[in-house]
């Protein structure tokens, strides 16, 4: 049996995904397929490294030394053909805290910040919570995929004198892995209009066949000098609860401003076990990751096939990366609140509300497919059965 087919009960572990589901959906029968963590065991080597660290029995202040940075730079070079210098790395407890720090460090109140919608909900809050002006470049839904409207992208930047662009690549929730051509076009516009780029690339390692993740900062030196990239092993290896991520900033001036902001907020250390897990994952986790990506791709294909063959009311967008699928439910003809209620009370599946990703997400829902096949099959069957009962 594949290591990714084993069901590990998570209730009673204070799991956000499983233990909060009953409160969130008001029904203990709802199957949680929402928040972005995986129902898979971590790599055995990472588990062993954590166990050995726990056996040591002392958890004092812990500093990630140059060995950890070398593991990071080696991983980025091997997996993404990106040569990063160790000095460019800043540690952080997570990508969301990083986004808050970057916004505060590199922009001023009222500065315009551009995002591409529908997109990961915290992109909205990190702009609005710090009194920056939110500018949107809506992605265009054509056939079965989303495209960038480059004319609108540049016009919004010009009209609003945008200072910063937050890129999501691979894109959550629509599953696009932006091509080199698309990245180059966005980059050229940002250089032309002197826009900083913040790249959330946390799903960079979760890429399906036929697609390649290209760090936008790796395109050329002009882009490298105006880009801050947010990365982490936590999505890749299911380590989110250990809170260990990092930023890559080649521009010394920008990096020093960001580092100072972290210090101002007292964020100067990582979780001891997070450091241990990061090192072990990047050292020993590649074989596990290859099998994971094959599993996720087969799961994507399974979900797409089931919906395509058994109902015309829900379309599954063919994700190019991540373990999150974007479901086009508009043919059900339901208002968004009724669509949420349908999934929750009739299908009894806990999904992410498409509208939480922006107004362009209305009529859509997001499903997490990073679960053993028995759980995935149950969830898909519940939705299809409810659709048929509703026809």
Structure description:
It contains 15 helices and 15 strands. It is α/β, with parallel strands linked by helices. It folds into 2 domains: 16-43 and 286-389, Aspartate Aminotransferase, domain 1 (Alpha-Beta Complex), CATH 3.90.1150.10; 47-284, Aspartate Aminotransferase, domain 2. The strands form 4 sheets. Strands 2-10-9-8-7-3-4 form a 7-stranded mixed beta sheet, sandwiched between helices. Strands 11-12-15-14 form a 4-stranded antiparallel beta sheet. The longest helix has 25 residues, at 286-310. The chain starts with 15 loop residues before the first helix and ends with a helix. The model has no long low-confidence stretch (mean pLDDT 97).
Seen as an oligomer or otherwise, the chain set is single chain
Instruction: Write the H/E string, N to C.
Output: HHEHHEHEHEEEHEHEHEHEHHHEEHEEEH
- Helix count equals 15
What is the mean predicted local confidence, pLDDT? Answer: 97
Distance between the termini: 38 Å
Characteristics:
single chain, 391 residues, globular, Aspartate Aminotransferase, domain 2, alpha/beta, four-stranded antiparallel β-sheet, seven-stranded mixed β-sheet, Aspartate Aminotransferase, domain 1
């Amino acid at each position: 049996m594949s290591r990714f087919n084993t069901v590990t009960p998570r209730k009673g572990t204070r799991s956000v995904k499983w233990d909060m589901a009953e409160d969130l959906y008001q029904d203990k029968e709802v199957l949680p397929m929402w928040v972005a963590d995986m129902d898979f065991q971590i790599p055995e080597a990472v588990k062993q490294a954590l166990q050995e660290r726990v056996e040591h029995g002392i958890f004092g202040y812990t500093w990630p030394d140059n060995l950890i940075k070398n593991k990071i730079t080696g991983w980025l070079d091997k997996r993404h053909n990106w040569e990063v210098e160790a000095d460019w790395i800043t540690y952080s407890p997570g990508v969301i805290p990083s986004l808050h720090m970057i916004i505060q460090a590199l922009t001023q109140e009222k500065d315009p910040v551009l995002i591409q919608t529908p997109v990961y909900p915290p992109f909205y809050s990190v702009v609005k919570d710090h009194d920056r002006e939110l500018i949107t470049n809506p992605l265009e839904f054509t056939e079965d995929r989303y495209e960038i409207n480059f004319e609108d992208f540049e016009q919004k930047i010009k009209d609003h004198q945008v200072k910063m662009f937050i890129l999501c690549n691979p894109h959550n929730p629509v599953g696009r892995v932006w091509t080199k051509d698309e990245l180059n076009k966005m980059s050229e516009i940002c250089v032309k209009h002197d826009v900083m780029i913040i790249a959330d690339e946390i799903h960079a390692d979760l890429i399906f066949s036929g697609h390649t993740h290209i760090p936008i900062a790796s395109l050329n030196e002009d882009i490298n000098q105006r880009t801050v990239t947010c990365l982490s092993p936590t999505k890749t290896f299911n380590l989110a609860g250990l809170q260990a991520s990092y930023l890559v900033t080649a521009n010394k001036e920008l990096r020093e401003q960001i580092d100072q902001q972290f210090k101002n907020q007292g964020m100067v250390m990582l979780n001891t076990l997070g450091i241990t897990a990061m090192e072990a994952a990047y050292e020993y986790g590649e074989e596990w990751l290859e099998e994971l990506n094959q599993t996720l791709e087969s799961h994507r294909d399974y979900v797409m096939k089931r919906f395509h063959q058994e109902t015309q009311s829900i379309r599954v967008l063919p994700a190019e990366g991540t373990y999150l699928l974007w479901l086009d439910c508009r043919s059900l003809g339901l208002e968004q609140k009724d669509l949420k209620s349908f999934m929750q009370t009739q299908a009894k599946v806990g999904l992410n509300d498409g509208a939480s990703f922006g107004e362009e997400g209305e009529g859509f829902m997001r499903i997490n497919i990073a679960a053993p096949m028995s759980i995935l099959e149950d969830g898909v069957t519940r939705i299809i059965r409810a659709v048929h009962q509703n026809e």
